[in-house]
Design brief:
This protein is mainly β. It has one helix at residues 29-36; strands at 15-21, 45-47, 66-68, 72-78, 82-88. Helix content is 8%, strand content 28%. Bound molecules: guanosine-5'-diphosphate and magnesium ion (MG). This is ATP-binding protein.
């Protein structure tokens, strides 16, 4: 029977789920996506500058040196049938439209 084989059905694409990681500035969104992703995460970090003084609250994250300006992206494969796509947002109110 040409074109099919009951013992090895044609492979199907895995289901995909998009997970949005949202939250305030410095809560750990970028760290989370980068920690659990199986691929090198896409990052859009830019250095914090004096323009953020009094705007971006560094209380509790005094060592933070950069901030996400567009998105984080990572991927987790859950077996053969499911792939998770992780999207991290910027945290500041000025980026809430995203
Ligand atoms: N104590 C602690 N610090 C963390 C944890 N995750 C991230 N951090 C730190 O908290 C800050 C969070 O930064 P980042 O991941 O850029 O936060 P984002 O603004 O939410 O993306 C960084 O300085 C991290 O080193 C955590 O699970 N525990
Ligand atoms: Mg971030």
């Amino acid at each position: 029977m040409a074109g099919s084989d009951a013992a090895s059905p044609a492979p199907t694409a895995p289901d995909t789920v998009k997970i949005l990681v949202a939250g305030g500035f410095g809560v750990g969104k970028t760290t989370l996506v980068g920690s659990v992703s199986e691929i090198a995460p896409l990052r859009t970090e830019e250095p914090l500058t004096t323009a953020g003084l009094g705007v971006d609250d560094l209380a509790g994250v005094e060592e933070k040196r950069a901030t996400t300006v567009a998105l984080d992206f990572g991927r987790i494969t859950m077996g053969r049938d499911l792939v998770l796509y992780l999207f991290g947002t910027p945290g500041q109110q000025r980026f809430w439209f995203m």
